[in-house]
Automatic annotation (TrEMBL):
Belongs to the class-II aminoacyl-tRNA synthetase family. It is an enzyme of class 6 (ligase). The chain holds residues 105 to 546 of 546 of the full protein. This is asparagine--tRNA ligase. Residues 136-432 form the Aminoacyl-transfer RNA synthetases class-II family profile domain.
Length: 442
């Protein structure tokens, strides 16, 4: 349908052509002389309005009640001008085939359903305008992400999902273990199922990985290993955090984009983050016009202007000290953030680190990044201070031992970017199958 109706003429260039459309029935309107079937195939917001007369092949399916909301159909017909105001063209059906009928219990009917209700129908919600548009814009953002980094000479690196290191040191990792076999007996009585040594300690030698392993919270450390060999690299993959925050900005499973720049400092890092965001936002404004108009009309009034500003205006840079001063003056309640991660480079003042966050309206923290501590002695001291086990970071320390370089990078939460670019207020509506405390269905 996007192919037919997209472009300047909104389909008028196809007049007279015989075309086939496959999709799902959105609505059926039976009028005295004609019947209208609105078909959507997920390629765009627009439906294809199809008109069927009683003499068309397959009209009996309308009469017998087969054509209902949710049914999948294949329609063949001639493109004709439409009398309606909503579209320039419609399809005059010559042949109608029901591919799969839809049970009357189909839960997504025309009446407005809440996004909260749709979260319980994650398998069917992509058939709505909102979730169809979110899926397409998410896809465009992913495409633009690869395009931006590829055009700028970055190499995509696959970071592992299972790892023994805790990059952020916040203790938010999900443990992956085969120590508890997934049998019913073991699940009913996991404490008895865990193998123990003679001393009563957990016997990790019997685990698949022979040590505690976790779902990754960040691909950064792995990214650093490749940046110190291939120069600029980026990762783009799923990451996991077991933080029990039931908020509209946190997921237990989210995708992160993590570029790592070699021979670079914090300024280069900030420049890269800014250029990246402007590039992907511009891409979406230029390539997802219909979906963005939809968000502008129905989700967040003014979002297109807000995003255009992002592309055109420069970003305000503010130091940590200035931000604290501003907050103190505002008399708003706020907490001083906790200790920074072990890998961040110590500044010359010996107190602060070379780190940055990018904050955006409505979402808050979109990006967190830093220049990494490239000096072996400083890094070892820092690991000691935080009482982290130096031995387990032997490979990370090797990167400083053999040809270390100043390097910097950042992590961008992809779902927060989708929130920012669509105006969707809850992060659970930006990913097809959200994982959050107490929810891992589908
Ligand atoms: O600020 P964070 O914790 O930084 C890192 O993980 C660094 N290792 C990144 C790096 O320098 N390579 O996380 C980065 C971003 C945040 O700014 C936020 O956008 C997103 O990841 N994020 C989450 N998004 C959704 N749900 C969560 N629970 C998130 N936690 C972080
Ligand atoms: Mg952060």
């Amino acid at each position: 349908i996007a192919d037919i109706k997209g472009g300047e003429s909104e389909g008028l260039d196809k007049l007279g052509q015989t075309l086939t459309v496959r999709g799902w029935v959105r609505t059926l309107r039976v009028q005295s002389s004609v019947t209208f079937i609105e078909v959507n195939d997920g390629s765009c917001i627009s439906n294809m309005q199809c008109v069927i007369d009683s003499d068309a092949e397959g009209y009996d399916q309308v009469e017998s009640g087969l054509i209902t909301t949710g049914a999948s159909v294949c329609v063949q017909g001639v493109v004709v001008p439409s009398q309606g105001k909503k579209q320039k063209i419609e399809l005059k059906i010559s042949k109608l085939v029901t591919v799969g009928k839809s049970d009357p219990s189909f839960p997504i009917q025309k009446k407005k359903v809440t996004r909260e209700f749709l979260r319980s129908k994650a398998h069917l919600r992509p058939r709505t305008n909102t979730f169809g548009a979110v899926a397409r814009v998410r896809n465009a953002l992913a495409y633009a992400t690869h395009k931006f980094f590829q055009e700028n000479g970055f190499v995509w690196v696959a970071s592992p999902i299972i790892t023994a290191s805790d990059c952020e040191g916040a203790g938010e990792q999900f443990c992956v273990t085969t120590l508890i076999p997934s049998t019913k007996e073991a699940i009913d009585s996991p404490v008895d199922a865990i193998p123990r040594t003679k001393n009563g300690l957990i016997d990790w030698s019997q685990d698949f990985f022979e040590k505690p392993a976790f779902l990754t919270v960040s691909g950064q450390l792995n990214g650093e290993t490749y940046a110190t060999a291939l120069s600029d690299v980026y990762t783009f993959g799923p990451t996991f955090r077991a933080e029990n925050s039931n908020t509209s900005r946190h997921l237990a499973e989210f995708w992160m984009i993590e570029p790592e720049l070699a021979f670079a400092d914090l300024n280069d890092d900030m420049a890269c983050a800014t250029a990246y965001l402007q590039y992907v936002v511009k891409h979406v404004l230029e390539n997802c016009k219909e979906d963005m108009d939809f968000f502008n009309n129905w989700i967040e009034k003014g979002i297109i202007d807000r995003l255009s500003d992002v592309v055109e205006k420069s970003f305000v840079r503010m130091t940590y000290t200035d931000a604290v001063e501003l907050l103190l003056k505002s008399k708003k309640k706020f907490e001083f953030p906790d200790i920074k991660a072990f890998y961040m480079r110590l500044n010359d003042d010996g107190k602060t680190v070379a780190a940055m966050d990018m904050l955006v309206p409505r979402v808050g923290e979109l990006i967190g990044g830093s220049q990494r501590e490239e000096r072996l002695d400083y890094l070892e001291t820092r690991l000691d201070e935080l009482k982290l086990n130096k031995e387990s970071f032997w490979w990370y320390l090797d990167l400083r031992r053999y040809g270390t370089v100043p390097h910097a990078g950042f992590g961008l939460g992809f779902e927060r970017l989708v929130q920012f670019a669509t105006g969707i207020d809850n992060i659970r509506d930006t990913i097809p199958f959200p994982r959050a405390p107490g929810s891992a269905e589908f």
